[in-house]
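User: We ran a pulldown and think these components assemble together. Before we commit to crystallization trials, I'd like a predicted model of the whole complex to look at. Sequences follow.
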Amino acid sequence: MRRLKTVAVVGVGLIGGSFALALRRAGGVATIVGADRDAAALERATALGVIDTAAESAADAARGADLVFISVPVRQIPTVLHDVALAIDPTAVITDAGSTKEEVVRRAREEMRDRFPRFVPGHPIAGRETSGVESATVELFRGARVVLTPCEETDADAVDLARTCWEAVGARVALTTARQHDEIFASVSHLPHLLAFALVSELGSRDNASELFSFAAGGFRDFTRIAGSSPEMWRDIALQNRDALLAELERYEGRLAVFRELIDKGDGPALERLMREARSARHAWLSGSKRSPSSE
Amino acid sequence: MRRLKTVAVVGVGLIGGSFALALRRAGGVATIVGADRDAAALERATALGVIDTAAESAADAARGADLVFISVPVRQIPTVLHDVALAIDPTAVITDAGSTKEEVVRRAREEMRDRFPRFVPGHPIAGRETSGVESATVELFRGARVVLTPCEETDADAVDLARTCWEAVGARVALTTARQHDEIFASVSHLPHLLAFALVSELGSRDNASELFSFAAGGFRDFTRIAGSSPEMWRDIALQNRDALLAELERYEGRLAVFRELIDKGDGPALERLMREARSARHAWLSGSKRSPSSE
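Assistant: Here's a predicted model for the assembly, 592 residues in total across the polymer chains.
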């Protein structure tokens, strides 16, 4: 890739920090400017050498940058897009790392107006158990999938630049529409999170919760690991992707009803068949994925 | 503990094999006799030194044994209890490793008749990803919980012996009723398995299943890990513990309906509160458990 003169990273947490580290390592950028509402995080990012310069605001960071990478909580993205759109050069490209896309795109269109074609909505499928710039690593996106969801209006050169940067840091880029993205992740990510939160919520609300938990083992721990995720983040994702998530939930409840009926009438063969098919589908997925799936 | 002369292990898989290895290591037994419907497994158990002698049948293994440990699939337990009850000395003790207890106890009462007081129903909360005697390890039960569910008729000395053996191999023994056991595990084990199987089953049945799975990440992998478990085993557990499991499922669906309503009406604060409480409950559980929870 051509080396970018300046990249602005707005939100210097795990994702923003890792993107900065990895793009620099790949030789893709000369100078990285960071911005963050959390002054302490910005200071740590500078001290750790993740960014070269700390800017006062997202707009300041974006001014003169070739690429603006927005990695803030998904609800804050529209505000940042608004500020950044007013500051960037006409040829600059903006991309984000938000976990939902339709709502981000809808708001981006409102906030960015004539700069909207320079925005390439994105979502890297990567993460770690820990957060914050201290956890940032140059390897976070190696082999991870990144979904870009350009619209009809999005400039082709902007999509190319975003794709090139992601590929430079080792990611595998997929293009979908924003709606496809949201439907896919409602099923393989947002719904499982909801199901895990609901289970721990239900058990945790009982009088004998600590007795119950004391008998829980490794299966329960893994099943509920995603219920240890950030409540703010998952509240926002659930609300932003409401329609797709509720549609997935309805399908899931339908399948659960099938299982319930089979158990209720004691239909062992049909129950075993469904379980066997599920196990095979999961096994095929895991043997088919070239590397073990990244965290999220 | 006093050293037992002979222990019979019926079903020399992961659990039976590990119990044999660990009890021998603890100096708790002189001779271990094994029995298994699978002749090849029995041969491997002998070759690996897990058992000293291979018996022709469960009854043969049990004859003259001080303790009979039954670690066969839960549906086969009644048949084994029947055969063993006819063969054992009046002072011998029988215990099992079945994942459900009420149905096992009900059938034990029928099959064992006057020998029933010698039966100590048990359930070790331990396992590994792999099965079979080759995976047996002396450490499997170290720190693991074992639930014993004696009945009113159960002889106190029988319970003591079972407890002593489990403690000798490093397990932490808890006593509950069979019903309490089944209710507890319906909530922290059987329901999560059902939920995971249902999710993979639903997604796996779609036309675009492989596309969906290709976007799944580490959260999905962990959430669905238990859907990789044995379909026969979980079919049997679901059917044997039907009433408790369906009751848990109903409670869970009720909680899911609360989440759905909050998402539907966009109530962010209430949604976040439930998620936050769930995360805290899980965190408290994990920080409270002295060791990381064992597998199952």
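The mean pLDDT of chain A is 95. That may be worth checking against your pulldown data before setting up trials.

User: Thanks, that helps.
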